[in-house]
TrEMBL record:
The entry's keywords: Transferase
Protein name per UniProt: Glutathione S-transferase
EC number: 2.5.1.18
Keyword S-adenosyl-L-methionine: no
Residue ranges of domain GST N-terminal in the record: 1-82
Pfam families reported for this sequence: GST_C_2 (PF13410), GST_N_2 (PF13409)
InterPro entries, sorted: Glutathione-S-Trfase_C_sf (IPR036282), Glutathione_S-Trfase (IPR040079), Glutathione_S-Trfase_N (IPR004045), GST_Omega/HSP26 (IPR050983), Thioredoxin-like_sf (IPR036249)
Enzyme class: transferase
Originating species: Candidatus Burkholderia verschuerenii
SUPFAM superfamilies registered for this protein in UniProt: GST C-terminal domain-like, Thioredoxin-like
A GO cellular-component term linked to this record: cytoplasm
GO MF term list: glutathione transferase activity
């Protein structure tokens, strides 16, 4: 497989499938595109039908774009890995909270963009953004209370990959969080795949 991604410091959508593939030990070739390079549009057109990242090219040569579509495709193709929870009720809830992340939280995205190598406590904390954060905390709290952790549905899943860029935002902008949310954010940050992505972002910025 080949996975085309954008800058690790900024590309939250790229982070999601990359972290999932890394966590489950799936072999893939990374194709990194600097989204701010003069020829980025031409590069994107060559690797992605949508002209956006991420885009996965499967072993069969099929192009799959959009983070959630990529993760659904990989979960279906490698069903021996529990990328979604095995329990049907938990799986339905995991899909719901993942889809909510996929389509919602516009104020958080706009006012607290993912910038892993930036530290800007308090920036972007509009009332609307704080309402988004409160909803995210409610999702995390409910999932963790039911599963017992350490991740949203017990073991690391697509749902955790979907919220990993939110954790990066919380690390950057340091909004006030509950003890449960802080502990979960710390576990996600420390997970090997996420830590590797963060290291890659730091290397990009250092160049």
């Amino acid at each position: 497989m080949k996975l085309a991604i954008g800058d690790k410091n900024f590309s939250s959508w790229s982070m999601r499938p990359w972290v999932l593939l890394k966590h489950f030990g799936m072999p893939f070739e990374e194709v990194l595109i600097n989204l701010y390079a003069p020829d980025s549009r031409a590069q994107l057109a060559r690797v992605s039908p949508s002209g956006k990242v991420p885009c996965l090219v499967t072993d069969a040569g099929d192009a799959v774009w959009d983070s959630l579509a990529i993760m659904e495709t990989v979960a279906e193709s490698y069903s021996q890995h529990a990328m979604w929870p095995r329990d049907a009720s938990d799986r339905a809830r995991a899909r719901s909270v993942s889809a909510e992340m996929h389509s919602g939280f516009g104020d958080l995205r706009q006012n607290m963009p993912m910038e892993i190598c930036t530290h800007a406590p308090g920036k972007g904390a509009t009332p609307e953004t704080l309402a988004n954060i409160a909803r995210i905390e409610a999702i995390w709290g409910e999932c963790l209370a039911k599963s017992g952790g350490p991740f949203l549905f017990g073991e690391f899943s697509i749902a955790d990959a979907m919220y990993a860029p939110v954790v990066m935002r919380f690390n950057t902008y340091a909004p006030e969080l509950s003890a449960t949310s802080r502990a979960y954010a710390e576990r996600v940050t420390a997970s090997p795949a996420v830590a590797e992505w963060i290291d890659g972002a730091k290397q990009e910025v250092a160049r």
